[in-house]
Design goal:
Blueprint lengths: L7 H12 L2 H13 L3 H29 L3 H11 L7 H33 L8 H12 L2 H20 L2 H27 L5 H9 L3 H5 L21 H12 L7 H7 L7 H29 L9 H11 L5 H35 L3 H22 L5 H11 L9 H5 L2 H28 L2 H8 L6 H25 L5
């Protein structure tokens, strides 16, 4: 008998946990401020309605109808629709993408764990910017430390998944997600006392149409054409569209897998609206927790990826109760990372159980070990090892030393290559194909039965969105990311 979520709440918590990750905590607030504050938020919510909601509805419905791992679900549904069984490759793509993403996600989550202990020990207290940078450099340049933290995080992920849907997944997310929200609220309440809260509100929510519609250079200065006029750009809209797609964990099999555990009497439309709303709420709360600390300490809010490991530790080290607040923050990040990691590994585990007859514990250990091993490549990437450093010796060893690798191999390391391949190619294509399959390949009566919308006008709207609007916008994001077209 196939396991199901014990309640609608556990499904919501699990799906939100999958969607809420490290990117939500720092990326959404950061790009919101960079691209016009309130204007960007409106654009993002608009894109969520056009991209995120229709495709998430489609992915959950595919999972619930198939009631299997993404690979077997797509194989069964393609046979049911009389379509080519090659659609099962969509399931394989999501499953592989999830494992590849988790391989480097685990390494970064390990760094977060390390920083939670550094914060609690007071290591950041009264440090200079160079001192904070030195702490981070010391960590990422030490493969043994990174390997240890990577191993600990993957072990926790394996332990959570190995106990099953109700014994492991449910118990973990029902603790992690409420704890994450409580920690976020505590940090927001503290941020209100720092003196930078009003400035953070202005930074995030004051509409700045110039930032949204006109191009700027790396220094934040507006670019001008030959006539001295500002240059119009679609870049912020593309960023909003891209984030609307990626923030909901679409195209990697996780949402489809979680949908397969969903009871058939539950309203998919209602669940999707709640999940999207909570995911956006967490991102906004994260901004209200982070940026008051940044502004109160006179730091740069546009620090990007360095915000977590360099900018914020500097703020924690120079504030009252900074060790406690810093510990809260990095524990919060750890909770977000673990809830996402669980969803990334579950599709592969489920496939091994269904197709190879393995027990859950053995299947989880197998997948976890493979992901752990792949993650070693990311560890050495932080030490400056490029793809050229890896492949050139291999080519020489097999007798092809005369082959010169292209500049691409020296440009990318293992981490950046996997990140680009998954986020820029596999996930957009996966989301695009989910929309095409649900909108064009599946029989209409099948999708109508899964949704059971109360209003007869809702289904035609969803069908139009998932057939035409969502695929077109995802395609635009994909072409823009890989550089074929720049909008």
């Amino acid at each position: 008998m196939r396991h199901e979520w014990s309640s609608q709440l556990t499904f919501i918590l699990a799906a939100v946990g999958s969607a809420v990750g490290l990117g939500n905590i720092w990326k959404f607030p950061y790009i919101t401020g960079e691209y016009g504050g309130g204007v960007f938020i409106l654009a993002y919510l608009f894109c969520i309605c056009l991209i995120g909601l229709p495709i998430m509805l489609a992915e959950i419905s595919l999972g619930r109808r198939g009631k299997q791992s993404p690979v077997n679900t797509m194989l069964q549904l393609s046979q049911e629709a009389g379509a080519n069984p090659a659609w099962s490759l969509l399931g394989w793509s999501g499953m592989v993408a999830g494992c590849l993403i988790l391989s480097y996600y685990s390494v970064i989550a390990g760094e977060v764990m390390a920083y939670s202990f550094r914060a609690s020990s007071g290591m950041f207290n009264h440090q200079t910017a160079d001192g904070i940078k030195g702490i981070y450099t010391s960590l990422v340049s030490d493969p043994e430390k990174l390997l240890a933290w990577h191993t600990i995080f993957m072990s926790l992920t394996v332990l959570s998944v190995a106990k099953g849907v109700r014994g492991g997944l449910e118990k973990t997310v029902t603790f992690l997600m409420p704890a994450l929200l409580v920690l976020l609220i505590i940090l927001v309440l503290y941020a209100r006392t720092t003196g930078g809260f009003e400035q953070a509100i202005d930074f995030m929510f004051t509409p700045d149409t110039d930032k949204f519609f006109y191009a700027r250079n790396d220094l934040g200065n507006y670019l001008m054409d030959a006539n001295g006029d500002k240059i119009f750009t679609w870049e912020p809209m593309m960023v909003a569209m891209g984030h609307a797609f990626f923030t909901l964990s679409l195209g990697m099999g996780a949402i489809m897998m979680y949908g397969s555990y969903l009871n058939r009497h539950v309203s998919i439309g209602k669940m999707t609206l709640i999940i999207v709303s909570l995911d956006t709420l967490v991102a906004l709360l994260a901004g209200l927790a982070i940026f008051p600390l940044v502004f109160a300490n006179g730091l740069n809010p546009a620090a990007g990826p360095g915000l977590i490991f360099e900018t914020l530790p500097l703020a924690f080290g120079n504030m009252t109760d900074g060790a406690l607040i810093g510990t809260f923050f990095f524990v919060l990040l750890f909770f977000a990372a673990l809830s996402s990691a669980i969803s990334l590994i579950e599709p592969s585990v489920a496939w091994l159980i269904e197709s190879k007859g393995l027990r859950r514990i053995k299947a989880t250990v197998w997948v976890g070990t493979v992901v752990w091993f792949i993650g070693i490549g990311t560890i050495f990437s932080f030490s400056g090892t490029t793809l050229q450093d890896i492949f050139q010796p291999l080519f020489s060893w097999v007798g092809f030393e005369h082959i010169e690798l292209s500049q691409t191999f020296s440009k990318y390391n293992f981490f950046t290559a996997i990140d680009f391949f998954t986020a820029s190619i596999m996930l957009p294509i996966g989301g695009l194909l989910i929309a095409v399959f649900a909108g064009w390949v599946m029989h209409q009566d099948s999708t109508e039965r899964e949704f059971s919308f109360r209003s007869r006008h809702v289904y035609p709207v969803w069908q139009f969105m998932v057939r035409y609007v969502s695929p077109f916008l995802v395609l635009m994001v994909f072409l823009n990311i890989i550089g074929i077209f720049k909008f």
